[in-house]
Specification:
507 residues, mainly beta, Neuraminidase, 6 helices
């Protein structure tokens, strides 16, 4: 999900290596990561909810007690599980492109489900009409959010809400800019998390797709001389092919709510780009696998992967500019961000069109360079890790089923298994919240008073220094999704273990 080696590797090859690593890990470890699955609180226990009849699970969606859907990333299938038994016929089978981070990615039920039997799915479409892992076999706008109707046994297509970029053909030269193309295609940074908020609106995280346009805080795109475009398909303005690195907020029919933070700004821009701007809730993001709404405050929280420096945990506010690609992590750590990105791990930010040597030398200059839509505001992450720790799926606990001490806590998974990277790979993290629920509470460890875990350099990243008080589980593999079930327990989806784990209170 993020680059982990310290050698320069062609981006497209890197994406294929990542996908292969996921598949090999899943095949080699059918029931667990290479260390035992464990929760680190003696009052809690972990049991295996399901580890047969599913392959590369990436999400779980509850219909009721002991009744849920499981989404499979590479098969494109949605399977129903009743009382622990996988039903013989999938309720949906989509033709997906699953290379790297593509595939069947997430699902959300309509807020009034099942009275309104609508189901929303984010997935990456195959251009062949069949499942594929060929990196080029995808439409330009192959990431899509569709609405389906649930009739009690089958999901039936009802309409498309939005189509987003998926074809990363940055290996094709851009006219007027010889020598600035990347060596091969990529299939990563699709984001893919969708959630309904307490306001009844649909929130969609779309990764940056390697774009280097206005929504990545480059007003004129990645090039220093005309033509000022992002790639062979245009940009840098956020037309359909360059609407990326964003959290979108949509009505249930796919239209933009009139109270979105950039609705007026988009109207002023006009055209395709303006219409897209009206749908944006926040921008300046890199890539994420975790969105979660606080059940007590209603605040939206997001996990965000680093390139090499500064994984983030963000409380998203309307109109937020997260700062990418001008920086990652807190503005006060800009010099460390630039130093790591220019001297370690191959010294690249995935796209060679915008090298890390162009990162600003001062916070003031970084702020001045940001592309600020009317009404936008830059905000530091609420918490960061100095080196990539790979935060993934996220969920809040609501209620006391796990014990009163866990009510209102935020849990986060990992984007790599221990088997793949060692160290803190496959870990789960738990955050308490401050009394006003505006921040994560890091008072248990004085080293975190600066709201940064200063973990140490590792060639494979995922060092756990200064995360000791945050770590609550280990051995869970890649965990793209964590959900609280109707019973109040947490269900952890492990892509690499081909399993769903349940965390509950010990009797």
């Amino acid at each position: 999900m993020t680059r982990l080696t310290n050698r320069p590797v062609a981006p497209g090859i890197r994406a294929l290596v990542v996908a292969l690593a996921v598949c090999l890990a899943a095949a080699a470890s059918a029931t667990a990561d290479s260390i035992p699955t464990a929760v680190l609180d003696p009052n809690l226990q972990v049991t295996t909810e399901l580890n047969a009849g599913i392959n590369q699970p990436i999400g779980i969606v509850f219909l009721g007690p002991s009744d849920y859907f499981v989404l499979e990333k590479a098969s494109g299938q949605v399977k129903r599980v009743i009382s622990g038994v996988v039903q013989p016929t999938p309720v949906l089978d989509l033709a997906v492109n699953s290379v790297s981070e593509r595939g069947l990615l997430s699902m959300a039920l309509h807020p009034n489900f099942p009275t309104t039997p609508n189901v929303y799915i984010y997935w990456t479409e195959s251009s062949t009409g069949a499942d594929t892992n060929v990196i080029s076999s995808v439409p330009l706008l192959g990431n899509r959010v569709d609405r389906f109707i649930w009739d009690g046994s089958t999901l039936t297509f009802d309409g498309n809400l939005i189509r987003l970029r998926s074809r990363q053909t940055d290996n094709v030269p851009v006219p007027g800019h010889p020598g600035t193309n990347n060596p091969s295609e990529n299939g990563n940074h699709n984001g893919g998390v969708i959630k309904f908020g307490p306001d009844g609106k649909l929130y969609i995280f779309m990764g940056d797709q390697g774009r280097r346009g206005q929504l990545q805080n480059l007003a004129n795109g990645p090039f220093l001389t005309p033509p000022f475009v992002d790639d062979t398909f245009g940009g840098p303005a956020p037309d359909d092919a360059h609407l990326s690195g964003v959290i979108l907020r949509l009505n249930t029919d796919g239209t933009a709510p009139a109270d979105n933070p950039f609705f007026a700004a988009g109207a002023a821009v006009g055209g395709e780009a303006g219409s897209n701007i009206q749908k944006v809730y926040s921008y300046g993001h890199r890539n994420s696998f975790g969105l979660a709404f606080d059940p007590y405050s209603g605040n939206l929280w997001e996990t965000e992967n680093a390139d090499d420096a500064f994984s983030e945990l963000n409380r998203i506010i309307p109109g937020m500019n997260g700062g990418w690609v001008q920086l990652a992590g807190p503005l006060s750590r800009l010099s460390q961000f630039k130093s790591i990105e220019t001297t370690q791990f191959g010294s690249a930010l995935q796209q060679v069109r915008y090298p890390p040597t162009r990162i600003a030398y001062s916070p003031t200059l970084a702020l001045a360079r940001m592309f600020m839509l009317a009404g936008a505001v830059y905000q530091d992450p609420d918490f960061s890790w100095k080196y990539e720790i790979g935060p993934a799926g996220a969920a809040f606990v609501h209620g006391t089923a796990l014990g009163p001490e866990y009510d209102g806590t935020l849990w986060i998974g990992s984007a790599r298994s221990f088997q793949q990277v060692g160290a803190n790979g496959g870990s789960l993290y738990r955050f308490h919240m401050t009394a006003d629920r505006m921040h994560v509470d890091v008072s248990a460890d004085p080293r975190l008073a600066d709201r940064v875990a200063d973990n140490l350099f590792r060639a494979q990243k995922f060092d756990g220094t200064e995360s000791e008080t945050l770590k609550i589980g280990e051995g869970f593999g890649i965990t793209p999704n964590i959900e609280q079930g109707p019973d109040g327990n947490l269900y952890v989806v492990s892509l690499t273990d081909n399993a769903i784990y349940k965390i509950s209170r010990k009797p």
